[in-house]
Fold these 3 entries.
Entry 1:
Amino acid sequence: MVFDKLELKVADYMTPNPISVKPTLKLKDAIIIMAKKKIGNVIVDDEKGRPSSILTEREILTYLVKDGGIPDTEMKKVQTKPFTIISPNDLILDAAKILLEKKRRLLVFDNKKLVGIITASDMLKGLRATGGNPTLEKVVSTRVYSCEYFDSIFKAINLMFKKRIGSILVMKNKTPFGIFTERDLLRILTKNVSLQKRLENYSTHPLITAKYGIKGNDAAEMMSKNKIKRLALKKNDVVVSMVTARDIVDAFRSM
């Protein structure tokens, strides 16, 4: 490995003071907070003010597909996700292993006190500075799902739900037009947009792409510069795969 992993501590790269919500807050209000803060999750406290679970974009998507809308319910009644506790003194690569294997959000506790949250994007900030530049071929998804620009938002989120993916490619005239992500969905929900509206006006476009074969650090830099969570990779002008921050962390861990 090209760097000394002992220098990469969770405390140096975590996001401090993560946002928590009370169990009596309505789900709709939690979604508004996530959209305004541009975050993919909020921590749900129990009745005693202690972190009990996490609301992510995936649970919101599930409600929309199964119920057709966001129920008027309090957070304590919402199906949320468990989290895994790590220490600020843990190493980034050890945290990455937990993130990838358990597939859970990681909350950072110091002496039983919540002090931060660390995501794949946070981890990349440290890993990028090491000088490593791993290949991505073994970690990227080679199955790219798409909808047409005239398809409905609901069709897109239904596909995302069934395939358990965080984004879909939006095509127009047989050409990649943009991308629709869970984050785009959050923005839509705060504006009361009908899920029967066409994807064309609510996807992120133009689509930012890179050549298939780009290295991990280079892809991470491109994603950071453009403030995106997913990067489409092209081969012979055809999008053949998508790479995420989690994929790149996995590539660094495998070096």
Entry 2:
Amino acid sequence: MLVAAVGDVHGRFFRVEEWIDTLEQSRGERVAAVLSVGDVETFSTADDHRRKATKRTMPAEFAAYARGERTMARPFYFVGGNNESFEELDALPNGGELVPHVTYLGRAGVRDVAGLRVAFLSGIFAPTRFHRPRLPASSAETNKQAGYFRREDVDVACAVAGADMLLLHEWPRGIAGPESAVAVVGARGIRRSHWTQMGNPHAAVLVTRLRPAWVLCGHIHVPHAATLRWDGGAETKVVCLDQATRSDGGLVWFDLDGSSVRQMGWGTSGEVSWTAGEPWDERQSAGRIRVVNRGEY
């Protein structure tokens, strides 16, 4: 079985579908489901005033699906990021189908997707909001705070048992090393955050608690690969995805035998990047770094 995952979509739904079409042709196999790590932007009109000003130059192609002009060809599941149509998602804290084949997973929990047990946590960490109640997303300010997860969301996700994969929007802290892609980008002066501060500690706690085989995340717009090793020899492989601008960093696919990944690859070529038993580390993301503009977040 083939499952694909895509980075921050930012409204580029047509492009994602084209990528999946190409991947299926390359692999000669149907993609059973597409997972997204957030910032998909399911706005029902292209000129929605609630989109951030920095995002309004990007496509808003979900409108075609909302109007019924197009239908997603494969099941598409996503967690919320910090750039979303929050008023609509706020009405679905436990997730739900927005249009045929496009499903918001919810704030936190677990769901069976194509035979995989997928745990998830939507949003990013904001210290000033983590212990404060969530307000209805009905204004510019409350829409912004809707993109932050709360203590209770993390608690719900931590209670999940037996997850095969974990979907996050923001990176868990502790996965970027001095030789990682994000450190190299920072050293070039493109981003000024130090590699030790990338990601948030609560996502790291969640990963440590669940110890899934794979973690998928986005938000930083830098492709990155890392492995976390646990007592007893268990491992968690982390895949950080670029946004949906370049398929070689913004798309990965998994060839599954049941819930176990046999092979995986980046992009649409169908070329295998990793086979079970091989190391999964920074070398997997080498050559996929691109210039990042901080305004993209």
Entry 3:
Amino acid sequence: MEEARRRIQGGSGVSAVAGVAAEKKDPRARRITALLVAPGIIWMVLFLVVPMLMMVYVSFWTQKTFTIEPTLTLNSWIAFFSSETYFGALLRTIRIWLIVLAATFFLGYPTALFIGLFIKNKTIQTIVLVLCVVPFWTSFLIRVLAWRPMLGKEGAVNIVLQKIGLISQPIEVLLFTEFSVVIGMTQIYVVFMVGPIAFMLSRIDPSLIEAARDLGASTWRIFRTIIFPLSLPGVVVGAIFVSVMVLGEFATSAALSGRKVNLLGNIIVTQVGSLKWAFAAVVGVMLTAVMAIVVAALLRLADLRKEL
């Protein structure tokens, strides 16, 4: 009996290998696969790879006053790393990104936890998620500028705090500082953290949590060993969304800091406006490199292809 089972298993294994080999040798299957994949590859090469390579190439061009020459030089790179203003902008961008990422996580995860686990009705879940994106029905610029009358020296926040007696003088650091930039970015991008996490939480089988409770697990242990690990892919996706958008930001910092907080995005806009294409390319390469490192590091936290 055991010998027969081995033969059957061996025969099925050989058949599977033969099937895979036949499929690889089938030219028609290969042509269909190539035709299906080709449009995406061509699109990525033309509109992602080529522009990025061109940006790297231009970053080594020689920058004149209002023109550039295709003579390769390291002057623009040396100017970037030797200037406290520009290198400081890189460090400031990374610092604000970390703060906003942490703020969106700590604000977004409890909201997603409520939507994904405590709201059982799928229709109500959808309604609540739609309410989270209601601010996106208005202009991005309006949402940013709306914080100015809220955070100003004579704004709503200072007025309320003075009325209830918490402060005697208006707080001046609420606006035109890094603090105001962080508040604005957190409010704008927190929904990108809520959505993916709520989606992953809604997929958790309630019987897992019930079984853990029956076995005597505490609420914190259930969260630490079941809920958070299963929601980690959503956290990674949300973190990627927030990171890419915050690292490339320039409008929010310009509007809420009074152009006092310069991020890499602001420098790119300024340099392009001054026709300094080579230096703008250097900053663009640095920003792209930072984004690539951040996304690669986040993708190591969870296997999205397996989980999603």
